[in-house]
Design brief:
alpha/beta, Double Stranded RNA Binding Domain, 8 helices, 19% strand
Length: 239
């Protein structure tokens, strides 16, 4: 074993190999020829609008934001790809994500078609090993991949994650447990963690969905800030 490094757990090695087998190859991005064909859809979720993109190999994008900006970002991420808005092709993935939001599937184990550096792929694989309802610090993730001094690099890899939820970078926090930045907004990160924690504890807590300009945020029952424009949402209701 190389000094300063650690043997990776067998499960994490398998997850990394799964990423390598499913991810786009570097030649797909470097090749001057035609890029991949990507189908995408734009869907309402409890956290606002979501773009889901997938190739014939698996999901390559899960992002939150405004429709026009999301499509522009997808095009910028895959400049040689042929993009097609095709809700029917994306429907199985969208159902899985909405079921996950609704508490009907704690493990969101989608087939992925993602590409990053070797280090990024190791981090993304490790993030998928963090149990639902739990968090890890950046330093702990660095330990998981055998790079104990790479906490900052882990943070950069989390920020580069193109597939929210499927690669749960929202479960990575600062060493003291405080929330740090999140590519799609700290409020979304806080909401996801609160929801996962409540459901993992089996509290049966109901959630309020309140409208806001940039999507919608969830609040545990009793903490909803306003009586106006709200409705009660149960764990089985993803909308």
């Amino acid at each position: 074993m190389t000094p300063g490094r650690f043997e990776l757990p067998f499960e994490l090695e398998n997850r990394i190999m799964s990423f390598k087998e499913l991810s786009m190859t570097p030649s797909t991005h470097r090749n001057a020829g035609p890029g991949p064909c990507i189908s995408y859809s734009l869907t309402d979720t409890p956290l606002g609008r979501m773009l889901l993109g997938a190739t014939d190999r698996g999901v390559c994008a899960v992002k939150f934001g405004e429709d026009a900006a999301l499509v522009q970002e997808l095009a910028a991420d895959f400049p040689r790809a042929t993009l097609t808005c095709d809700a029917e092709a994306i429907a199985p993935y969208a159902r899985a994500v909405l079921d996950h939001f609704g508490g009907r599937g704690a493990i969101l184990d989608l087939a992925l078609d993602v590409h990053g550096t070797v280090f990024q792929e190791r981090v993304w694989a490790a993030l998928r090993e963090i149990p639902y309802g739990q968090t890890r610090s950046y330093g702990e993730v660095a330990q998981m991949i055998g790079e104990p001094g790479a906490a900052r690099a882990v943070g950069r890899a989390c920020a580069s994650n193109p597939t929210a939820l499927a690669v749960p970078c929202h479960r990575v926090v600062r060493s003291g447990g405080a929330l740090s930045g999140y590519r799609w907004g700290v409020q979304i990160k806080r909401t996801l963690l609160e929801q996962e924690r409540a459901r993992s504890l089996g509290s049966g807590a109901r959630w309020w969905v309140s409208g806001c300009r940039k999507g919608r945020s969830l609040h545990p029952e009793g903490r909803c800030p306003t009586e106006r424009n709200r409705r009660r949402a149960r764990p089985g209701d993803p909308s």
